[in-house]
Amino acid sequence: MKTSIFISLSLFLSVCIYGQTVTTITQGSPNDAISIDGGGNIYAAYYHATEGKVFKYDASWNVSTFFESPNSCLGLATNAMEQVYNCDGNGNTIRMFQPDGTLFATFPAVGFPADIVNVPGSEDMIFSTYSGNTINRLEPDGTITTISNDPLLDGPVGIAQDEVGGLYVGNYNNRKIYKVNNDGTLEYIATVGSMGNLGYIAYAQGMLWGTVLQEHKIYMIDPNNTDDVTLFAGSSNGTMDGDISVATFSGPNGITFNETGDTMYITEYNTQNIRIISNIQLGTETFKKSNVTIITPLNTNEIVIHARFPEKGSVPITIYNVFGQTVYEKDLTTDQQNFVEKINTSTWAHGVYVAKLKLGGSSVTKKILIKNK
Question: Which of 174, 160, 84 is nearest to 119 (CA)?
């Protein structure tokens, strides 16, 4: 029997997520910050209090040691001239390198400098200090100005900027993320995870992203809402590659994205590997696979399945949460050409779900992100 089916999944502020796969890069031994330059080269740090390294990976993942230090290597960033900045927390120093790896300058920065980003359209940098509990601006001549020393800063490490230069900071100690206002005050965004430490944060596709080391998880955070946190990937401690719904991580720490924001790079503290999540696409687009179309444009707490059959048909559908547990299961069978099934999602936890439909002898899976009111 030939069956055509139209499925409309209508979710509150929902987005579709599909096709992500996780792969592992084992070259080098990075366990901390990770950054990417304008040419697509990846820089990743190995952190130890008395030994530090920065690895450089080209587009083919050929690796070289960019820098070695008797002190620590943490936060990494490049400016518009492709000069590389690296935070040495234990040495209370920020290093600046030429693209060829030549050490060009060092800047004293007390308070355990931890992470660093480039100010868009400027040669200035912004960095956090973990024990100093500050956010600071570093000019090319070494001038340092405190942007924020708000008492809400509690071991700040990860910093990120949105597309208009908005600044965000994440506390390593209590996993809280804040927006840094122009006057230096902090605006609470979210608490990420339920235990352990928040690693680094990044911004891509309108969302903040953060790693929680001890939970072995990666979270997505909507900066426009309060405590709007979604588990994006990970479950128990592990090293499984493959589809994001089953992939596992081991102490995810550093995090960054490519220029288009559809590929995520993560360093793992436990394995000292780099994990890559490919094909990340968020949006209210229409996706087609086989004879299934999924659209997510509306703002209700329900999934609406509208099936059109040219003849009597049967389409079993099962929806799983990120842990593989079945949250909905039904065999959609009708004698009508048009059939509507509404699924109430108001009691479902925010998160990624997988809808699996059987069409004849084959099956189709679709990933969706449910964000209820």
Answer: 160
